[in-house]
Design goal:
Layout lengths: L2 E8 L5 H9 L5 E5 L2 E7 L3 H8 L2 H12 L9 H7 L1 H16 L6 H7 L4 E4 L2 E4 L2 H6 L16 H22 L1 H22 L9 H17 L9 H16 L11 H28 L1
Antiparallel strand pairs: 1-3, 2-3, 4-5
Helix pairs in contact: 1-3, 5-8, 8-9, 8-10, 9-10, 9-12, 10-12
Amino acid sequence: MNLAIALRCTLDQDLSAFVQLLQQQQVPCRVSEERGEQVLWVPAELVEPVQQLFANPDAWAAFAAQAASPVPVERPSFAAQLRQAWLTGLWLVLTAIVALITGLGERLDIVSWFSLQAFTVHGEYGHFLPLEHTLSSGQWWRLVTPMLLHFSVLHLVFNALWLWELGRRIELQQGRSVYLALVLLAGVLSNLAQYQFSDAPLFGGLSGVVFALLGFCWLYQWRHPVVAYALPKALIGLMLGWLLIGVSGVLSLFDLHIANAAHVGGLAVGCVLGLAAAQWDKRRAQQA
């Protein structure tokens, strides 16, 4: 679908009622901010009718008054959301299965199937094979699978909730191919970052991917605003604050071990890809 600019308005002009009217009429549209203006994008063939409608305030004043009144909005059911974002649901199912069969990290013989480095347990000690040896034997899946490991219920629930909230946004906005590439790349690079900068050979969790999704939404929204990635600034600040607390080492005083390198690596991957995707989408929109 080729989108074209239909309107340019000042930032203080409220377009919400007009946008709702277009959506009610099943007119695809989106609003972006460019050079201190609001820009309304619609399909190229509908630019003139939309401009004519906007130029006649009486045609949509009644709708604007109705939109100002609180109207209950029925949210899609969880099943409906799951059908739309089934890839995110699949990640959650896989994570839950791995948590179940590993006993949240208690069954080390099974954990060793998913860890970055293969290892064996002898009594109270674990013997970890070098990563180069593991990969040279063809066990390339280990670059990804540590993200499926979790070691407590809180660890699992926290990451699952964030993956559902952020992952489905990207899956629906960017498409499943981009989303899949983002998750896999973030998983691999965050795992390698943790391996490189941590002394602990056994680690896991989706948090590196979660920070990648956060970084993607954050930087995409900064460069090319869309409704799907409009996260509250306080929420972004909370996550970044948690990241800084972890990096500071304060949590180690309470015997809490955080995969800080995975978090930072994931955030970096997400920020870079978010900027790249925003620039690409913005250029395509301008050329439409």
